[in-house]
Amino acid sequence: MENLDGNIDLKIKEISQKLKELRLSRGYTSYETFAFENELNRVQYWRIESGQNITLKTLIKVLEIHQISLGEFFKDL
């Protein structure tokens, strides 16, 4: 079970890193600016990019901001 938890934590880190890469690819060097301009809670968005567990609702909202589907987001993960 411990190995499974470690694998899940690794996947969460991969998701958070990919979200950060999406933000950077849109020209936002600051997560704070991205959060503010897209009406996201700044602290919550920082948690997302730092690899904390997030809800599916939050993930879908961020992906909609980036105009990317769930399938497209997860295809390389």
From TrEMBL:
Gene3D superfamilies: lambda repressor-like DNA-binding domains. InterPro entries: Cro/C1-type_HTH, Lambda_DNA-bd_dom_sf. Signal peptide: none annotated. One of its GO terms (molecular function) is DNA binding. This is HTH cro/C1-type domain-containing protein. Residues 19-73 form the HTH cro/C1-type domain. The lineage of its organism: Bacteria, Pseudomonadati, Bacteroidota, Flavobacteriia, Flavobacteriales.
